[in-house]
């Protein structure tokens, strides 16, 4: 009679532990959340796919994003962010012009703040359908090269200037494109998918390590309890 009761107790504890970690994972995922519908995006189109033009695109990206992030990081609403960005358009143009001149690149460019067409996008683990979204679009030269994009407001772009690549902090993600992406099926805004992004973000290896540690803890715990009963 003792062993069946202990087995039932073991099963109850097992279910409780599994439920706890499932609830923790769900809460953690909810904290990240999808991109807000009224977010303001930044999109930079390179002149071409040549190494030189792609390098210039990243230099412009770094300069523009650094300025705008500083201006909008304390704002509360999208309307406020639009107003601030619009008021700084002359400065944004000067920043781009100076960056292009410093890189000895083609000085032709266009900047527009407003509704822009976006194809279906992957952002972290979420799919966003093609459509018109508020964006600051910077077109360098002919704008035929691979483009880069992220979310300006709320500020979800974080730059690692040591390698000139966009990275995501624990509360946000940024997507670097090597070519325009599309999805086979149209998804609702913010639909989460199980597919992982091609480029692993810094926090993903840590998350995998956490899973291994939790699994090891649970296995060790129940192994010890079982041996104490059987022994």
UniProtKB/TrEMBL annotation:
Classification via InterPro entries: Spore_II_R
Region Disordered, annotated ranges: 172-210
Pfam families: Spore_II_R
Residue stretches of biased makeup (Polar residues): 178-199
Protein name in UniProt: Stage II sporulation protein R
Native species: Sporolactobacillus laevolacticus DSM 442
